Amino acid sequence: MQEKMQQSQDPHAHQPILRAGPAISDARLVAILLHGRGAGAEDILGLSGEFSASGVAYLAPQAAGQTWYPNSFLAPIEQNEPGISSGLRVIAGLLQDLHQQDVSSDRIVLLGFSQGACLALEFAARHARRYAAVVAFSGGLIGPPGTHRHYPGRFDGTPAFIGCSDADAHIPLDRVHESTAVLRRMGAVVDERIYPRMGHTVNRDELGAVDALLSQTI
Questions:
Q1: What span, in angstroms and rounded, lies between the C-alpha atoms of 108 and 99?
Q2: Phi, psi (5° rounding) for residue 29?
Q3: Please, which residues have CB within 8 angstroms of residue 102's CB and are 6 or more apart in sequence?
Q4: Which residues are CB-neighbours of 25 under 8 A, at least 6 positions away?
């Protein structure tokens, strides 16, 4: 009974973490990859094969039920709990584990697609510091229009990439621009790329830009 209650309050705790690339102790960078709704850790981990950057270890946590939160990222945040908070705790736990292995934040990449992109951006904004990179494929900061974006902390020049279609059925273009503006205001160096009529996907230009980012970092 207690275990079921904990799962309902923290659904993503104790889910599998898939891995690719070198051991953490041998890695130049560690990238945390966050999958989208209806997908899984194995799907997003497949992106690692698209990058030629050397020395990158990849960690991909699995969301319970293949979704980090049940509703649109534009819904009131309380309607997406406890999923959002549980997902953010997963990321925080991974960072804590990495720090215990002497991996500092400036060697950690936060990368996600769709729901995972929203979660990566929201975590980064709530825990601003110097990261190796923050990458959002088709995502934006979480919350309904008018959400206050008074996050503490600074990114100290963290490079960030935000790519999205101008006609994404799930991600309003205004939210993409707002997310870029928030990160820039907090000291990130953001490369925002908007692709005409692309749809909800990741294209070759985005992968190339992020590959270059991973190759140039540190």
A1: 10
A2: -135, 155
A3: none
A4: 101
Q: How does pLDDT run across 148-166, given as a tens digit for each residue?
A: 999 999 999 999 999 999 9
Give the CA distances from residue 179 to residues 64, 93, 120, 146, 149, in Å, rounded to whole numbers and listed in that order: 26, 24, 12, 12, 9
Nearest-angstrom CA–CA distance, 215 and 218: 8
Q: Which domains does the chain have, with CATH numbers?
A: 2-216 (3.40.50.1820)
Cβ-based neighbours of 27, under 8 Å, separated by 6 or more:
21, 55, 56, 57, 103, 107
Question: Please, where are the H alpha helices in the chain?
Answer: 2-9, 41-45, 83-100, 115-126, 173-185, 204-216
The burial class, CB within 10 Å (0-12 / 13-18 / 19+), for 123 is buried
Interstrand relation of 56-61 and 17-20 (parallel, antiparallel or unpaired): antiparallel
pLDDT category at 218 given cuts 50, 70, 90 is low
Inter-residue contact 59 to 19 (CB < 8 Å): yes
The whole-angstrom separation of Cα 98 and Cα 95 is 5
